[in-house]
Amino acid sequence: MRLLFVKDFLDLIFPRNCELCGRNLIDAETCLCTLCQGKLPITNYHLRSWDNDLKSKIEGLTKVGQVMAFLNFSKSGKSQEILHKLKYRNKPEIGRYLGNLYGKLLINSDFFFNWNVIVAVPLHEMKRVRRGYNQSDEFARGLSEVLNIPVVQSLKRVVSTETQTKKSRLQRLENVENVFVVENPESIKGKNILLVDDVMTTGATLSSCANVLLASHAKNVDLACIAAGGKI
If we measure between CA atoms, which residue out of 119, 18, 143 comes closest to residue 70? Predict the structure, then answer.
């Protein structure tokens, strides 16, 4: 009873608000109110994860299994707004929240998965320290909590690349060449891996990471991201 009183008092002094509409959140809500959560542009890529336009996009770049995205990205849409807050407004909890949502969607739709570990696309250490967290790692941890699959820190970004935002597909591929290495190969050797990132545009970054993992004897790599679509 005392803890409940303290929580109610803190909510009164420091109200929790929806990240999209600003409404006060009730106890059962996290990050987004129920109304805004219902308006998220959720995809059905998990229903055709072996054959969709995302898989076609990376054809010839890497040899992976399933390719999925939780949200459709649209400029000035809900997905862009929430991703911008996740990446640039010091809101790591949004990444974990979205990972939880996607994990529940996969389980509730009877999606079959046999992943042994989840690996997040890493930030360069300088950028991670400056931001304070890796948004893709937060998404991975949210998935992990629901799917009960461990997250392993197997990849390291050894080159701090320029932003991909205004680059062409070819420039993006060249920008991430020889950027990633596997630090602890034993953690992924012979494993089925779910590799996750925040956004997939051309697929250059995810493909580069997948190739490094496969070269280090991962058994299979599937890809998942928070959103896929146009440029942020």
Answer: 143
Q: Domains of the chain (ranges plus CATH)?
A: 42-229 (3.40.50.2020)
CB 111 within 8 A of CB 119: no
Residue 216: strand, helix, or coil? coil
- Strand pairing of 155-157 and 192-200? unpaired
Scanning 25-175, the segments in alpha helix (DSSP H) are: 34-38, 53-57, 78-88, 92-108, 125-131, 135-147, 169-175
Residue appearing with tokens 């970004």: 157
Contact status, residue 212 vs residue 155, Cβ threshold 8 Å: yes
Kindly give the confidence (pLDDT) of every residue in the chain, 232 residues in length, as a single tens digit, with 9 standing for 90 and above: 554 444 454 455 568 999 999 999 998 899 999 999 999 999 999 999 999 999 999 999 999 999 999 999 988 899 999 999 999 999 999 999 999 999 999 999 999 999 999 999 999 999 999 999 999 999 999 999 999 999 999 999 988 765 545 555 555 555 566 789 999 899 999 999 999 999 998 899 999 999 999 999 999 999 999 999 744 3
Going by the DSSP 8-state scheme, the letter that residue 150 receives in this structure is: -
